[in-house]
Amino acid sequence: MCSLVASGLILLLHTAVEWALGRWAASQRRAYAPPAWWQVWALCLLPLAIGIPLITMTLNTPTLPPALATLCVAATLVGLALALWPGAWAAQRPGNLLWLAGDGVGLMPTLLLLRTVELPGRGLSITVPLAVLAAVGGTLLGIGWLVVMTGLRMWRRQSWPQAHEVLVAGLGLSYLLLPVVHYLLATPPAYHYISTASNFFAFHSGLQVLVFVVAAGLAVGVTRLRQRILAF
Asked: Domain containing 58: what range?
């Protein structure tokens, strides 16, 4: 989770800087073309792939085994990609980015609550009916929100984003922004700590894959619905 919190901070800072640069260029009547997110990501790839294992396998106490160090590298690189992706939107299309974030909110209940079906079996103080209600109800709530966003986009004559853009927005909000919010606002001032992965991800890898699949399905579904509306 340290990697994702760091990526969440990068998301906030990078987006804010790109937005400011875009607004400054507009005020000067100049065009601003930010670097593509994948170019910045590629520049960071080698330093992170080398530096993270060196630090986690030699300096920490206890040190991490190679397998866990590799997972830290993977989590950092995925999180960094999500963090850098909105930069160009913030610089060139800040209004569209806000609308996209609204769509991403619709995926958050699925990404964060669908996993609750496994919690009763983990000995946590939540009943099976309540866990199922949270999982199913959260997903239905997300669907309802996406329908509302579709209506608002039609009313305000906004363009339709692609399915992968909606999915990336949901992933960024759920797994980068929320951990940062938890770290900054939901921990005691004298005892800041990084939230555990179990607060955001399923214990069972198969269930987590299902969460991603359902969220992707919602992104594809709402995109196709909007395309059909546009066709009419």
From this structure: 1-92
